[in-house]
Design a protein that fits this description.
The chain has 376 residues and is α/β, with parallel strands linked by helices. The protein folds into two domains: 215 residues, Isopropylmalate Dehydrogenase; 152 residues, Isopropylmalate Dehydrogenase (3-Layer(aba) Sandwich), CATH 3.40.718.10. The protein is 39% helix and 21% strand. The strands form three sheets. The chain has a ten-stranded mixed sheet with strand order 2-1-3-14-13-4-7-12-10-11, sandwiched between helices. Strands 5-6 form a two-stranded antiparallel ribbon. The structure holds 3-isopropylmalic acid and manganese (II) ion.
Length: 376
């Protein structure tokens, strides 16, 4: 593992598309303040990228950008990629090359998506803001395999005479890919306090092993890895049943792990339990590198208005500091991460400065400033 100097860390900042460039500066401002309070300086290199960048330049990111992320940075903070109409000639999302370039190029095999509901956050469901799930009942971490499954670049289409007749996506599940992400999930469970329901440390395997061969492999590897962690309860759910249980009984879940696309879908639903995409953070982690990003996308409908919720980016930055603190052994960063989370918790509990997606009227900037103030 690379060793960072104890008093400074280097972050590659990729604002990207849409609301990305609006929320990322708020996350970085909060990060700097929290790190500075621990005597740690933050160095940044900003990397332009995304669908709009591609429309302007013909490249998804500049030459050397990947190397900056790989060789210079201790961690990466990404806004979002994707813009309406920005589509590569092969039909892929322009900007996707950045996200997938980093996921595959840096082998970020575990996509960690905590779903934690803070007191004061309302749910926007059925057209109204209301409290549906109790905050004490929603505190789980979903982990999605991030380098194979349906996202393995094994796709193709048969086009004859200009007409696409057949398209194929292959789902690749490997023992190596399954084993490492499942072990990662158990390691996270070991550090946590168990499920809200009963305090039991539990890892849930989400799959569709009743139908898919890859899921049967994933499930059997899960059983093997679980043996290494006798203090942690193991459990299996088919993905369809899991989706129901997630909504009806979130308090039962502590850590859950799944394959790439099932995890992609499940984590969007889990985000609803915590108040929506505006507050859902993520960290994509490998052995030596990690990228942090709100689960929300570029949200083109909100872009340019300064009203996007920066809390997902801010909480992602807190995850970044926690990861850096733990993997680089810099305890001050762990404290900085907790300080940010506590400040967010305070702001939403107080409920005076909430963005539009949480039923308030505050701008991106105002929410960012409120978090800064709450850190003092
Ligand atoms: C996510 C996103 C991406 C994914 C898209 C933008 C390619 O939905 O990070 O969950 O599907 O992985
Ligand atoms: Mn997604």
């Amino acid at each position: 593992m690379k060793k960072a100097a104890q008093n400074s860390i280097k972050i590659a900042v990729l604002p990207g598309d849409g609301v990305g460039p609006e929320v990322v500066p708020e996350a970085m401002a909060v990060t700097r303040i929290a790190a500075r309070a621990e005597g740690i300086a933050i160095k940044t290199k900003e990397v332009p990228c995304g669908g709009r960048y591609w429309q302007e330049t013909g490249q998804e990111w500049p030459d050397g950008a990947f190397e900056t992320c790989r060789d210079w940075a201790d961690a990466i903070l990404l806004g979002a990629v994707g813009w309406p109409g920005a589509v590569l000639p092969n039909g892929d999302l322009a900007g996707g090359g950045v996200l997938f370039g980093l996921r595959f190029g840096l082998d970020l095999f575990a996509n960690v998506r905590p779903a934690k509901l803070y007191p004061g956050i309302p749910h926007h469901v059925n057209g109204v803001y209301q409290e549906i799930w109790a905050p004490e009942n929603v505190d789980m971490v979903l982990i999605r395999e991030n380098t194979e499954g349906c996202y393995a670049p094994v796709h193709g289409q048969l086009t004859r005479g200009g007409e696409t007749e057949v398209a194929v996506d292959s789902r690749i599940i490997t023992r190596k890919g399954s084993e490492r992400v499942i072990r990662f999930a158990f390691q996270i469970a070991k550090r946590r306090k168990g499920a809200p329901e009963d305090g039991v440390r539990r890892v849930t395997c989400i799959d569709k092993a009743n139908v898919m061969a890859g899921c049967r492999l994933f499930r059997s590897v899960f059983g093997e890895v679980a043996e290494e962690f006798p203090g942690i309860e193991k459990e299996y759910y088919y993905v369809d049943a899991f989706m129901q249980a997630l909504v009806r009984r979130p308090e039962h879940f502590d850590v859950a792990v799944s394959t790439n696309m099932l995890g992609d879908i499940a984590t969007d639903l889990a985000a609803v339990l915590q108040g929506g995409m505006g507050v859902a953070p993520s960290g994509e982690m490998g052995a030596n590198h990690a990228l942090f990003e709100g689960v929300h996308g570029s949200a083109p409908d909100l872009a340019g208005q300064g009203v996007a919720n920066p809390l997902a980016a801010i909480l992602s930055a807190a995850m970044m500091l926690e990861w850096l603190g733990r993997t680089r052994r810099i305890p001050g960063l762990g404290r900085a991460a907790r300080r940010i989370e506590t400040a967010v918790r305070r702001v939403v509990k107080e409920g005076k400065v909430l963005p539009g997606d949480l039923g308030g009227q505050a701008s991106t900037r105002q929410v960012g400033l409120a978090v800064q103030k709450a850190m003092k």
